[in-house]
């Protein structure tokens, strides 16, 4: 669908060069929701804006459906952009236009006639649930409603792909959820490919099929969302995932604990409870559950279980070895200073 | 006093009309030439969709050049051009040549600065929609700055009233001319006060009408 080859974007200021995107090669498949995560300044926004040539890459290729966007004339590029929708953190609606006119503008850009523009714009407003706001001005809408208008505008020309530039970052958690639901609905119903960038791992967890983590202009890790959550490799990825899956045991609890604190991670179909109950049944140890949580990512369960095992050291070790054969196990230190996935964090 | 006023009335009417003609022509030209010039200054700016360093700097320099010449000097400087254009250097129509030349860059800068107040993101979103530069100017920039364009016209009109008094002093006619001829050369305070009051009322009316209109066209 979209393939990006060795793309770099360098910003030249008076006295130095700033590398925005550094030799990125990636591709987004037809019909998927692809997330790019990173802190601000990681280059994710530059990368996204290179995908519709809002920013012209310094080098590399952007190929959409077999068309190299960089080889197009200005006019051809405008036509190509009509098949790439885009929404922004700040919505970017024209304040002097009504909701309907804002959506119709995109259709005007593709030279759709007046009557058809109105019909299609109303249809799109209906899709995003704002038919009753057609004649209002953006200033009268809430943030979530504004983003819906901008989604309607971005969908006006039946795009092949939708680019989302921090689309939910300015919204409260509830509104974020409803916008994400809408994006997912569009993705499923219209088969629209979505590329989104965000600094919120929650967003990725919620809707992305695949994701990539960016740092200093490079993609440091990329893969299926579930896999990334279950088996993060890069420290930065771990840190991002921690923001969603994090559990913080009180320091005093860890310090006071006499037993061995074991952190288990259950992925896929494994039922956490039976493994734990087996463990307690078959070994001479007693367990004290400190934390337990199951997250659903792409409808697959990812369970976290922290248990304090007490008993004879050798027996506890055997018990841990037994569990290790089935799930990922980590023994947490008692001082509470090091969290298993905090390694590398500030 | 009433008698004085009645004797003055025909002259006052004529002067008032002349001022109106000068301001109206200046304002008309400002709108027709200054508006596109202001938009050109804006869209050729750095980071905008018709970025063009050469056009931007050349236009900018010309605009600054005209604006840096004091109006009364510009007036005299343009006499040959005025003579060529309207065949005379006196009268309101001749005066309005210099007024127009001064009004164009004045209004252009106002247009440019109101366009700069538009959220760049809105323009960017329009580009992302695949809109052509002309569509963006006509359908996004223009409606967004419409209230600013009208406020700008108000400011320009009021400045032109001031300039027209100077033009009057060297043969352009108008209320300023009246004030100088009677009030300054003949120490006729009555005429002077009358003209000042008329000018004050004119400025107030224009400002009020301008504000009202700007508010009226403001949407959203």
TrEMBL record, chain A:
One of its GO terms (molecular function) is ATP binding. Residues 2-241 form the ABC transporter domain. The keyword Transport applies. Keywords: Amino-acid transport, ATP-binding, Cell membrane, Membrane, Nucleotide-binding, Translocase, Transport. Pfam families: ABC_tran, NIL. This is Methionine ABC transporter ATP-binding protein. It comes from Halobacillus campisalis. The lineage of its organism: Bacteria, Bacillati, Bacillota, Bacilli, Bacillales.
TrEMBL record, chain B:
InterPro entries: AA_ABC_Transporter_Permease, MetI-like, MetI-like_sf. Residues 16-209 form the ABC transmembrane type-1 domain. Gene3D superfamilies: MetI-like. The chain crosses the membrane at residues 20-42, 54-79, 85-108, 149-170, 190-210. Keywords: Cell membrane, Membrane, Transmembrane, Transmembrane helix, Transport. This is Methionine ABC transporter permease. CDD domains: TM_PBP2. It is found in: Cell membrane. Its main location: membrane. The keyword Transport applies. It is a multi-pass membrane protein. The keyword Protein biosynthesis does not apply. Belongs to the binding-protein-dependent transport system permease family.
